[in-house]
Design goal:
The complex is a heterodimer of chains A (about 450) and B (about 475). In chain A, about 45% of the residues are buried. Chain A has 9 helices and 19 strands. Chain A starts with a strand and ends in a 7-residue tail after the last helix. Chain A has 2 domains: about 120 residues, RNA polymerase II/Efflux pump adaptor protein, barrel-sandwich hybrid domain (OB fold (Dihydrolipoamide Acetyltransferase, E2P)), CATH 2.40.50; about 200 residues, Chloramphenicol Acetyltransferase (2-Layer Sandwich), CATH 3.30.559. With about 450 residues, chain A is α+β, with helices and mostly antiparallel strands. Chain A has a 6-stranded mixed beta sheet with strand order 10-19-18-17-13-16. A 5-stranded antiparallel beta sheet of chain A has the order 7-2-4-5-9, with no helix packed on it. A 4-stranded antiparallel beta sheet of chain A has the order 1-8-6-3, with no helix packed on it. In chain A, helix 6 crosses helix 7. Chain B folds into 3 domains: about 210 residues, FAD/NAD(P)-binding domain; about 110 residues, FAD/NAD(P)-binding domain (3-Layer(bba) Sandwich), CATH 3.50.50; about 100 residues, FAD/NAD-linked reductase, C-terminal dimerisation domain (Enolase-like, domain 1, 2-Layer Sandwich), CATH 3.30.390.30. Helices cover about 30% and strands about 25% of the residues of chain B. In chain B, the strands form 6 sheets. In chain B, strands 1, 2, 3, 4, 5, 6 and 19 form a 7-stranded mixed beta sheet that branches. Chain B has a 5-stranded parallel beta sheet with strand order 8-15-9-10-11. Chain B is globular and about 65 Å long. In chain B, about 50% of the residues are buried. Classes of the chains: A alpha+beta (about 450), B alpha/beta (about 475). At the A-B interface, helix 1 of A face loops of B.
Chain lengths: ~450, ~475
């Protein structure tokens, strides 16, 4: 009896995704560890691996299909000894809807056919079974009964009416919470605890089901009569569009700019890098940005009121300093998070960032590596940008835009002098952080950047 | 004496202890229960149950006196006082036997005697000073309950000045009675004796009777009681009791002015104190504060392996609170998942006076003090068909909601059968419903419970029948 391969949930919030590509054709033999498909989520591309052996009998969802709901059958696998006639029953073609309980599937034979799980394709990608927050192998791509795990988005979330309403008012995504009530039901205390922890409000909900791939919108709306080529939106593009539109429309931004002299920082960096081993395990090369991450982290520790986010229920004052760093990648950007950056040394920050950047460009970051964060940094200094104002990354309260370090005339003791100056602009959500608090943060940040020895503390 | 070993030993067989014992046995823990007097404790033998039997008598009396309204002619009604008390005792005895059977059925080993801690993980049991057994256990639960509090100068003598215990087995019906204290116990006796025909005076030190209830309910109750002829002095204290041959003269100070009142009997109902003595707490780390054992959310004392539940650990002094604590304590010991600490705002309280009073959660005042923006709903008995048909038009149902989230913060009821109704609101609170689910619930017609629905609707300006 053929085994259904179901669309896996790659993160707890994922309700649907794009089936980017098939890596196996119908009729191909699949072995344990073979990558059979690639799935694109909000921001990353994940590979679906086979666990056992069999033959890819039928592809139900063609490559390039968007809006494939989690747990929809995407392919059928024939176990050893089965032939194509066994596929007849399933010959319904691609279905966009979650399947009704497939009768033949409810009694899967014990010695089962290939098992599939979505794993990180990245080296050493410990296969954190996708979305398996609570029991249930969300990865178990061939679960017979269509009872998705409680935590998988789109699945039924058990929560008390009060918990639902409180979560709604606070903008919390219930599917991200673990319930402590009977049978894992989410109750009031769980929502309160999440709010105390500062769980991220649910701004990153998966986009609404996109119907068939790319229907050309009315040309007049976009192109004003000029000829154009339509670039279909990637999932990431849609998320960027929605979230940043929300941010600019709903978050009352204000901006504070400060100039930092970074000659001491550059000297320190040069000195440290000069002492790095040429090659091997201990080799390193710190970037200016590594220093900025560290300085911002220490400044947030000193001015914790800036490490905050707005929620309807109250201001979330984060207890950890987790810095999201914007990384440009082909056709978009992503913000991997240096967690507990205030407690990490420059070297560790530097290594983490290098790893993040490399994997971000391949689209191989894990959701938990870029979802969350308490504060963002965007650095366009390497492009020679002098100063800019970034759009806040909701639900965070602040984002620091870092410009280029350049030699500028400065006045010192009444005389003109030359210094390397870097302008930084903090975009602030006025609902949670007032002008004075934002200014205090920048003051602390500037003090650390200009006295990099303080980063030793 | 050879030591007998158990997983859990529970000292005290009241509603906390025996329920904990049964739950422990269900969880396959080898369990012993030590009880010095009656299985079922005060609740079953000298509290909840026998008083309800007495109050039933009072209700029957009330109906007989008003039989005319229902179309009966009942003449020459007289009371056989001994029979009243006997019935109450028989009810208690029947249930105590039931508890014994339940413990046996669940294979709980019961020791007849007084238990006390005798070193880490050890309990000694004695009866009349003679050793009965030495027990060893990893977990020892203290459930020794509480007794009536006394005030200096107001000592009960069991003859003229009673506690609840004597009040329950009075040899005859006193003509006049002073009740000191207007909590649940005081008010129940006041209501009972008034309905049986005694002249009753209640003295309360606080500015209102039933001080833990919602202020509106207190005021409503006072009006009803005064209409029935109970005299009530609030903000008043009893300064002295002078005992005569068969009467007591009390000096009462109200609003700064003393006056004297002579009554046949006095009932002291000024709270209770935990039975913390003679259970071997000395030399352990168990902390005692104001005659109650200090425990954490899982009922653990500071002494490893020693737990305490029920009245012994403090208010609210309610049998169902003790039982629930027993279950939580034992489930935590057994490692059951999803155990939650007891939330006192989910414990309903009932007072079996006429009219009855029942409540759960926060009063309006407490909710406001906690900073909630509240929505209040009220519905009177006079607007309910069943209440009118019953001939019980006096009462009200009040609900308190958090205006922001719609959480049912509290419910407060006074009137016929409210003690049977309150569980609806308790379930609502435990399931964390908001006003929406309560509004969507279909309440049967015609019942008193419709008032619960109407009260919820009223909180949102949508009451239909008022």
């Amino acid at each position: 009896m053929p085994i259904e391969v179901l669309m896996p949930a790659l993160s707890p919030t994922m309700t649907e995704g794009k089936l980017a590509a098939w890596k196996k054709k119908e009729g191909d033999v699949v072995k344990s560890g073979d990558v059979i498909a690639e799935i694109e989520t909000d921001k990353a591309t994940m590979e679906v691996e086979a666990v056992d052996e069999g033959t890819l009998g039928k592809i139900l969802v063609p490559a390039g299909t968007e809006g494939v709901k989690v747990n929809t059958p995407i392919a059928l696998i024939l176990a050893e000894g089965e032939d194509a006639s066994a596929l007849a029953k399933f010959d319904g073609g691609a279905k966009a809807e979650a399947p009704a309980p497939a009768a033949p599937q409810t009694k899967a034979p014990e010695p089962r056919g290939p098992q599939l799980s979505a794993v990180e394709a990245a080296p050493g990608g410990g296969s954190r079974p996708s979305g398996a927050e609570s029991g249930g192998s969300a990865a178990g791509a061939h679960r017979p009964a269509p009872t998705p795990p409680a935590a998988a988005a789109g699945a039924r979330v058990f929560a008390s009416p009060l918990a639902r309403r409180m979560a709604e008012q606070a903008g919390l995504d219930l599917s991200q919470l673990t319930g402590s009530g009977p049978g894992g039901r989410i109750i009031k205390v769980d929502v309160e605890a999440a709010l105390r922890r500062g769980a991220a409000p649910a701004v990153a909900r998966a986009p609404q089901p996109a119907p068939t791939p790319v229907q050309a919108p009315p040309a007049a709306e976009v192109a004003m009569g000029s000829p154009y080529k339509l670039m279909p939106h990637s999932t990431m593009r849609k998320v960027i569009a929605r979230r940043l539109t929300e941010s600019k429309q709903q978050v009352p931004h204000f901006y504070l700019t400060v100039d930092c002299e970074i000659d001491a920082l550059l000297a320190a960096r040069a000195e440290i890098n000069a002492k790095a081993p040429e090659k091997g395990e201990g080799a390193y090369k710190l970037s200016v940005n590594d220093f900025i991450i560290k300085a911002a982290a220490i400044a947030l520790r000193r001015v914790p009121a800036a490490n905050a986010a707005w929620s309807e229920a109250g201001t979330l004052l984060f207890e950890t300093v987790d810095i999201s760093v914007a990384v440009a990648i082909p056709n978009g950007l992503i913000t991997p998070i240096v967690r507990n950056a205030d407690q990490k040394g420059l070297l560790q920050i530097s290594r983490e960032m290098k790893d993040f950047i490399a994997r971000a460009r391949e689209g191989k970051l894990k959701p938990e590596e870029y979802q969350g964060g308490t504060f963002s940094i965007s650095n366009l200094g390497m492009y020679g940008i002098k100063d800019f104002a970034a759009v806040i990354n909701p639900p965070q309260g602040c984002i620091l835009a870092v410009g280029a370090g350049e030699q500028r005339p400065v006045v010192k003791n009444g005389a003109l002098a030359v210094a390397t100056v870097m302008s930084c602009t903090l975009s602030v959500d006025h609902r949670v952080v007032d002008g004075a608090v934002g200014a205090e943060f920048l003051q602390a940040f500037k003090a650390i950047v200009e006295n990099p020895i303080m980063m030793l503390l | 004496m050879a030591e007998q070993n158990f997983d859990v030993v529970i000292i005290g067989g009241g509603p906390g202890g025996y329920v904990a014992a049964i739950r422990a046995a269900q969880l396959n823990l080898n369990t012993a229960l030590v009880e010095r007097e009656h299985l079922g404790g005060i609740c079953l033998n000298w509290g909840c149950i026998p008083t309800k039997a007495l109050l039933r008598t009072a209700e029957v009396g009330h109906l007989l006196r008003h039989a005319d309204a229902y179309g009966f002619k009942v003449e020459n009604v007289s009371v056989d006082w001994k029979k009243v008390v006997d019935r109450s005792r028989k009810v208690a005895a029947q249930l105590a036997a039931g508890v014994k059977h339940l413990l046996k059925k669940n294979k709980v080993t019961v020791f007849d005697g007084s238990g006390r801690l005798a070193g880490r993980g050890k309990v000694s049991v004695t009866k009349d000073g003679k050793p009965v057994a030495d027990l060893g256990a990893k977990h020892i639960i203290l459930a020794t309950g509480a007794r009536a509090r006394t005030l200096p100068g107001l000592d009960p003598d069991g003859k003229l000045v009673w506690t609840y215990k004597e009040a329950m087995v009075a040899p005859s019906l006193p003509k006049s009675l002073l009740v000191v204290g207007s909590g649940a116990i005081g008010i129940e006796f006041a209501s009972f004796y008034r309905n049986m025909g005694a002249e009753v005076t209640v003295v309360e030190v606080m500015d209102r009777i039933l001080p833990v209830e919602d202020e509106e309910i207190s005021a409503f109750a006072r009006k009803q009681f005064e209409k029935q002829g109970i005299k009530i002095h609030t903000g008043a204290t009893v300064k002295a009791l002078k005992k005569g041959a068969d009467s007591v003269t009390a000096t009462i100070e109200a609003a700064g002015k003393p006056f004297e009142l002579t009554v046949d009997r006095v009932i002291l109902a000024v709270g209770i104190v935990g039975n913390v003595e003679n259970i071997g707490l000395e030399g352990t780390k168990v902390r005692v504060d104001k005659a109650h054992v200090v425990v954490d959310e899982w009922l653990r004392t500071d002494e490893p392996g020693v737990y305490a539940i029920g009245d012994l650990v403090g208010p609210p002094w309610l049998a169902h609170k003790a039982s629930h604590e027993g279950v939580i304590c034992v489930e935590k010991i057994a490692g059951v998942k999803d155990v939650h600490p007891l939330d006192v705002t989910k414990i309903p309280g009932c007072t079996y006076c006429m009219p009855q009073i029942a409540s759960v959660g926060l009063t309006e005042k407490a909710a406001k003090e906690k900073g909630y923006q509240v929505r209040i709903g009220r519905f009177p008995y006079i607007g309910n068909g069943k209440a009118i048909a019953l001939g019980e038009p006096e009462g009200m149902v009040k609900t308190v909601f958090d205006a922001k989230t719609g959480e049912l913060l509290g419910a407060h009821m006074i009137g016929a059968e409210v003690t049977e109704l309150i569980q609806g609101f308790s379930i609502a609170r435990t399931l964390e419903t908001t006003e929406a689910e309560l509004m969507h619930t279909v309440f049967p017609h015609p019942t008193l419970s419709e008032m619960m629905h109407e009260s919820v609707l009223d909180a949102y300006g949508r009451a239909i029948h008022f």
